[in-house]
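Memo to structure team: turn this sequence into structure tokens by end of day. - J.P.
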Amino acid sequence: MKRWMRSVKRSLSFLLAAAMIFTMMPQTMMQVSASEYQTEAENAAGAHVTAEMPETTWGGVISATEIKGETTLDKESGVDAGSGSGEDSGTGKETGSGEETGTGGETGSGEETGTGGETGSDEGTGDDGETGSDEGTGDDGETGPDEGTGDDDGKNPGEGTGDGEDTDPGENDDTDEDIDPDEGDVSDGESDPDGDDGADEEDIESEETDEEEEEEEEEELEEEKLASLKAAALSESDFTIDESGKLTKYSGTGGAVEIPGTVNTIGSYVFKDNTSITSVTIPGTVVSIENGAFSGCTKLVKVTLNEGLQTIGKDAFRSVAFGEKAITGAIVNSDPLMIPSTVKMIGTSAFRDSACLETVVFEDGTTELVMSSNNYPYEDDGPFRNCKALKRVTLPDQLVNIQRSTFAGCSALEEVQFGKNLKSIGDSAFVDCISLQAMNFPASLESIGIAAFSGCTNLIKVSLNEGLKTIGKEAFRRVAFGETDITGAIVNSDPLMIPGSVTMIGPSAFRDSACLEEVKFENGATELVMSADNYPYTAEGPFKNCKALKRVTLPDHLVTMPQNTFDGCTSLEEVQFGVNLKSIGNSAFANCSSLQWLYPQDSLETIEANAFTNCKELTILYIPQKVTKIGDNILKNSPKAVIYGFSGSTAETYAEKNKIPFREAGGEGWSVTGISLNRSRITVAGDSFSDSAILLRATVRPSSARNKRVSFTSSDEGVASVSAQGKVTINGYGTAVITATTEDGGKTARCTVEVLRKWTEAEKEAIKARLQELNASKLTVVTNVCQTVADIELALPSEYELKSAEWRLKEYAIADGARPIYDVIVKREGYQDAVITGLTITGITVEDISIAGAAKLQNGANTDLMAEIETAGGNLPEGSYDPVEWSISGSAARLENKSGNIATVSGVSSGTASVTAKLTVKHGDKKVTISSPSFRINVTNDRLASSIDITTTENGATVPIDSSIELEDLKEAKEYILSASVRDGKDEVIDNPSLQWKSSNTKVAEVKGQGSGATLKIKTETGAAVISVTANKNGGYTKTFRVVVKDSTPRLEETGINLNLNQNTPAATVHIVPSYGYEVSGEGLSVVLADGSRSGFTIEKMPDSATEYQIGGAKDLKTGKYKVHVRVKTGTGESAKEHTLPLTISVVKQIPKVTLTQDNIVNLYEVDAEETKILISAEAKIDEVRYTPSVGVSSNRPKLVLGSDLKAEYITLKTANLNKSNYGSTSLKGTFEITFEGYDKSVVYKKAFTVKANKKVPAIQAVPAGTVLYTGSAYEGVGLNTTTVSFNLKADGSEITKETGWSMELQSGISGVEQVEASSQAQPLTVRLLDRARKSTTLKFKVRNEGWFEGVTATASCTVKKGSAPEMGFSNNKVTLNATQDADRADPLKIDLFVKNQPERKIRSVSSITGKNDAADDALSDRLNISFENGKLEVSIREQASFSKNTKYTYVITGRDQKGAEVSGQLDVTVSTQAMKLTLKQSGSIDLLNREGTQITLKPTLKNYTDTVKKVDLYGSYADRFSAVCENGNIVIKAENDSILKVKTTYNLSLRIVLESGVVQYGKVKITPKQTNPKLAVNPTKTVLFESAAGDTYGKEIEVKAAKGVLPEIKSIELTNGSDSFVYKYEGDGKGTLHVSPNASSKTNKTYKLKFAVRFKDSGSNAAPVYVTVSVNYRK
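Reply from structure team:
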């Protein structure tokens, strides 16, 4: 009866609950057809609900049915609708199978059977024939109370209660829930003999108590279900859904949101800016998410997109977090965003500005996916733009086009996997993705858009696919294509291979690459166009300013090279031209300052102006015969260039007209003499070769050869094929030979390619098992660690046709502490060497033998030495080795006893002896011997200490001190009286020993003593000290013990902090430093006021930090200072202690401080005035920066506006409204407004700021500034009648090379001068002098530039001489010869002859030499020899000639110059009879720390002789410490780099000076070196060292560097203080790297000022060091 009552009660409860839910349902929900409430079970079975439903009310019992996670209401069949007795039975085979009908259909009495084949009599039969009582049977025999299993009228087949087919899945009305526990007992396989309810009445009474408890528990569960049903109904009411199934409004409270299953469209902006939503699950019914649906949901972390979704609208998930940020800034809880395969369209900015989205994965589908479609034709913001955390993207195969800006600004993006059907990458698709490092494009890709990868400055590897056709403007601008190491050298720069399929490359496509070193074009069938007419207004070449580019191989299908193609490629050394190139554009190779040779192919027809301008090192330019058009100034500022061509060609005419050297093509260095390849052998192993490509680079000799074209062939293309540019592609297994052949001369070089198979894992495992079996217990291996194992006969499995193998001990990988692990390298023909890892040997491995014992021995005493044998795998068994063989060398000791591993050595006399031990291991019939290193023994006559015992006295008793003394919370110093007893090797006491006592940390403990007694004073300072006592005169034996002073009280490092209420969450960090040996537990943390009352402040321990704690406060705190106590605990359990630490908290409202600094001054002189950067330094992280100019927007006055760069560390400002009438008329004022992350938006830093500007006029110079022109008939016919002069103009010292925008002209009004051309944009500027020109005329030029507001005037002077004859010039027209014995061995004096004022015009012949002496003595005229040879006069005194006094000769020399003009000049020769004298004028000094940059200069002056210094030698005591050379007629002396010198010390040196004529002179010099020490700096100047809880200490590196300039090489760095507390190590690399770490004496929670003395390698030996100081704070 009780059970029946409870059953009725529960039924009534369900009815009441259903009624409540029914009243809460919106009217629209009541009118939904029954088909919308079909259960999952019905859907799965293919059933269709046909329940009838009144329009306004529902009849029957209402139950909750969960459809795909959403709770809806359903009309349930059941109570009194169908009969429950014997109508439906079975588990999944009866009515639930869709074959039998419910009530009103069939009866179960005697007709239906269970799954066991048994017949149910009068009842529905349960599983295995078990009967239920009066009810339809559920799964496992569980029954519902009088519940029929069919529909009202039996019209719903399949609605029975078969196995697993609950009518109410999740709620278990019929299945898996025993609504009546008694009735559920039937399913346990126990038959009911009485045929009643399944249990005897007596049984029921005996079990009544237990069953009541179970029923009460079930009642509680039912109540929970009812509550859940109510909540589900309430949740359903949070959504507003129109008749079409579109969700139009959400009014819920947020949190985890599940969209109802009745929704097919999520409307525009339904959840916009809802910051309460944390997750959303979208059901499979949704096909469209409209514009902005979840935009601004910044707390939305988890988003599950459903399969079936087709459209994601514009801004749909913009600014959605997709994750969270930890307090450290790290991203957490960021699940991958899975885009279903059914999605067909994603709108612009759909996922833009996500803060935490890290991974996006598109699932492959069958329908093309369109992102940023034409539904939004005026938008160019990509779906994932500015997702700053996005790292990985997997794109689907159905994506054909990546639209504009799709991933622009994704600065963390590292990995992109493209789909196999991708055809185009849109403009700016990956712009500024600075974390991308590698990019492999699919074979389907045809187009890369404008600026697609521009600004990807860390993109190193780019593999362009065959099939690519178009590379857009700036597509890879500023892409690195490599990287630099710490020295600045370029590494990882692979050649850029441009496929032959490419037919268009836009302007600046690869411009400004920092590390691109080589570009190779593959040949193609369709003409390649670079900088095409698609971009008609740009003139920037594809490879402009690629500063690292060295080598370029151009393709045969390139016909026209556009302007500026390689302009500014300053490292370019080698260019190979294609055979169809016809035109080289304007400035194509301008500013290629490393080019030395250029050999275009014979197809070339046109060279445009300035093509090779500023190629400073260009020496050979070959211009083919077909070239008929050559532009102006093609070799301007290329001073070394020589044009090579053919006689009578356009090239020769151009060279003569422009005064450029010309030579016939051909000659030495022109033809190829040899070739080599960068690799002679390539070995590849693998199973797939699709990505196996190797680039061969041919080097043709000589480097100046004209035709460097090379062809490649393969001996077996089935193994490896090779392209025309040397790209080797692996195609199969085997060996192939790649041959490179030069077109010129047929020279060859070869590379062998061997392609090996890889072992399969199954093969390797089989070999491993076989080896283990064959060698498991047969080996005793002798080896040294990490070396090849010796003397192993390795049994190899023959079935694998193995050649050989070797065993290698892995780097001490001992798996179980006993058995070493080996790698075995197995070889097989045609296979890569297989490394079989993890092979163990159960035999014994002998690894090493060494000798242990005392290294010092007292004469007459004995000591035992032991041979220590290191083995792995166990000890050597008896009989596997011979006894250890001992030997000794040296007479100071002898071996007394040798017993196995022990040997006794006795001292015989003072001196040394060496002992060696050998072990012989036997393995079968083989023996292997391993020897120990020699063990050196020093024998002395002194008594050697072997032990020291230290004791003290406490309470009258003697107490030994062994290892340590530990004291805690010491309030006052404590003293101990120590006594030391020293014993020798014979255990005899050494009387009156000489002992040295020392403390490593005198701040903790101090020890003073002599001999065997000492006083130890332990102070109150916490820390540790090591006390040592050393027997210095008795062998140096040392005994140590440790003193530790602990303090249980922690310390608060800060005395005061600020809490800023302007922050969203006011907080500050403090450091609670645990005392020595204690840790703060982190429990019981609180902050209270000084009086103990609640403070309103909170404190919590920061994660991953031992000392950091964060104190926070509420926003409603009042400003002011609060005296508080921070309460902490140390220790745990009974040892726990509480501590109160005082702190002052200042609660303030402050705006973070900001410093604004202008980076560069704006030059208002320029029309397009440059932008300026404003550097921002702020106390808080910047959120937003705004700038407002002081002038109105409508004003035409100049102002500044924000530029495009708005980075946290700076912003850019650009000029606006700047014109000729107002430039320079304003100071460009404005106001900054800055907000901060973590602060209220109302907290704004405002600052009026004036940008510095100037009007800087470039200085224009004309070069040369002055010249001399020769006019008149006297010069006609000989090439000296010059009436024009050319000038090159410079701006601020740099030559004006830019053609466009420049104009220059001669100012009018200068008499006698006219400009050759009315105006000129090209250099040089040429003017003509007219007959009326004055003798001296000043020329003035006006220069303009389109970038300037007005012109600048430059002046140049020109001196004109008319009618006078040209004169002969002499390198020295007044010379002196010496007739004394000093000059007997002199060579003739040589004098250069040329046209005066034109030294480049040499004298080619001399027709007459006439002269006389001042004494008019004709007899003296034949005493000098004067002759002319190779443009020089040679003058000397004839042999046997003698002079009694000084004699002067005057000669007139007449001759002709190179063009045949006759010239003459006067030469004065004096013969001196007085001794010649050499004087040396000394200047300069030697700085020992700048030996290369400082020197002593001696300027020689000869009296009574004309000559110059040819050679100088030093001699004397210190001559080897200096060097001397001749430079420009002077003697330069420097200090040798490695010589040892002193500062302020004078060194006397002697010099032997040889003149050009061979005359030898001598001199002396005094040198006093100085030393200018650099000002040094350290980085960091302050540092913190930590001690861990385990007592481990950690060091840090400190760098010593020059504060300015270059740091001299450092010799040593020594610590001058604190050596008892810190250990330091200088690496000795000369670069100032220093490692500092604490020792046991260092005291924690203290700051040390460490002073280091720095000495330099080249310092004077007596020079003082330079000192630097580092502040070190030592903490726990």
